[in-house]
């Protein structure tokens, strides 16, 4: 079954085309990431699919239901964590999530359990305006998940989180997806998309440029491997004579050999007893992202 079916979706703001004729399918139970630089149209796309923003053209079906005209039957079946968290003022974290839970007929015990799952039990009596940015982000995610939705939308869910909190949240999101829930998220973290997502849509200037699994996108890039040899083990002159080496560079980490034949080059290094401390880096999702969207600064 298809959880999300989008065809020809378009949204304009004056002369700006924020989303430009986008078509996209997400399968039930799939974990999909939407990547793109600032202003690519990611948030606008998600807001239309969530039913928060009306498209100018195109069709949207979510869980077999039309999203527009606004479909209230979908609201209990989806969970949404927005880029900017908005809470009821002067409520504690516990009061906040219990209020969200009550809107869906969910009991207080379940709400309190979600506080524990996102690591906020010790902040249960803290007012939401006194939470740190990362704590508020985790509370926002718990509120989006408290009613156990079939489909979850997360807009940059790990922004403002420290590395440990990010990893813990990855485990939580993976467990939600493993239980059969469909998850769609936007993120600027390439490692996050590689670890979590079954498929990734790379978006820029309102269009989807590529949509496939992270591994398939990296394979399609056909990027050369970079083999770093520890300092003092190999000089650049000798490295340049090795068959299969396209170019060399020297830095603080040692000599870097760029090649499209890493197996052969590693064999040569092994034959001359130069493998100690060798590090091999192949293409990454970040390489794909930069190749598709460019390297210029986006405000």
TrEMBL record:
The organism of origin for this protein: Nocardioides humi
The family this protein is said to belong to: Belongs to the ABC transporter superfamily.
Protein keywords: Antibiotic resistance, ATP-binding, Nucleotide-binding, Transport
Compartments, as annotated in UniProt: Cell membrane
Residue ranges of every copy of the ABC transporter domain listed in the record: 4-230
Signal peptide span: none
Identification of the protein by name: ABC transporter ATP-binding protein
Record-linked InterPro entries: AAA+_ATPase, ABC_transporter-like_ATP-bd, ABC_transporter-like_CS, ABC_transporter_ATP-binding, P-loop_NTPase
Cited PROSITE patterns: ABC_TRANSPORTER_1 (PS00211), ABC_TRANSPORTER_2 (PS50893)
Membrane topology value: Peripheral membrane protein
SMART domains registered for this protein in UniProt: AAA (SM00382)
Pfam families per record: ABC_tran
GO molecular function, one term: ATP binding
């Amino acid at each position: 079954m298809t959880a999300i079916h989008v065809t020809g979706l378009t949204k304009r703001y004056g002369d700006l085309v924020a989303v430009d004729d986008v078509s996209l399918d997400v399968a039930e139970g799939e974990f999909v990431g939407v990547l793109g630089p600032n202003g690519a149209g990611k948030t606008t796309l998600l807001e239309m699919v969530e039913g928060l923003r009306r498209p100018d053209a195109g069709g949207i079906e979510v869980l077999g239901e039309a999203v527009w005209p606004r479909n209230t039957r979908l609201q209990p079946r989806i969970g949404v964590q927005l880029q900017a968290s908005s809470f009821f003022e002067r409520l504690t974290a516990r009061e906040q999530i219990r209020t969200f839970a009550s809107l869906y007929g969910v009991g207080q015990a379940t709400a309190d359990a979600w506080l524990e799952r996102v690591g906020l039990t010790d902040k249960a009596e803290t007012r939401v305006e006194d939470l740190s940015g990362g704590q508020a982000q985790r509370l926002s995610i718990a509120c989006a998940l408290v009613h156990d939705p079939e489909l979850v939308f997360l807009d940059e869910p790990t922004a403002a989180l420290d590395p440990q909190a990010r990893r813990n949240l990855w485990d939580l999101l993976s467990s939600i997806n493993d239980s059969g829930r469909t998850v769609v998220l936007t993120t600027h973290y390439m490692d996050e998309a590689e670890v979590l997502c079954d498929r990734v849509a790379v978006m820029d200037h309102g269009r989807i440029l590529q949509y496939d699994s992270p591994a398939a996108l990296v394979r399609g890039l056909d990027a050369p491997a970079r083999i770093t040899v520890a300092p003092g083990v190999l000089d650049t002159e000798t490295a340049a004579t090795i068959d299969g080496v396209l170019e060399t560079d020297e830095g603080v980490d040692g000599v870097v050999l760029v090649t499209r034949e890493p197996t052969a080059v590693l064999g040569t290094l092994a034959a001359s007893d130069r493998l100690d401390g060798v590090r091999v880096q192949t293409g990454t999702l970040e390489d794909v992202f930069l190749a598709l969207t460019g390297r210029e600064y986006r405000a």
